[in-house]
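ok so I'm stuck.
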Amino acid sequence: MAAFVITDVDITDAPLYREFMEKVTPTIEHHGGKFVARGGALETVMGNWNPPRLAIMEFGSLDQIHTWLDSAEFKALNDIMTRSSNINMVIVDGV
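replied:
not stuck anymore, here's the structure
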């Protein structure tokens, strides 16, 4: 069953964040994930949640997500991620 990573991103250093995205994307793909939404137009239609940037990644399972999050490749990018952005992240099982 598919599982998803949803991130709400506030970019604080755009050039550094671009570098992060270039480096993190192959780690996501290596662990069976893919972006299904990234950036783009965002419209709040209910409530007051208005994230500056939203991304959704799809993986084959929650186990694949946890393997990716625990991987050395992803952990190696933690410094660049935290210096370039403030990220809220949730994971959820698909239906």
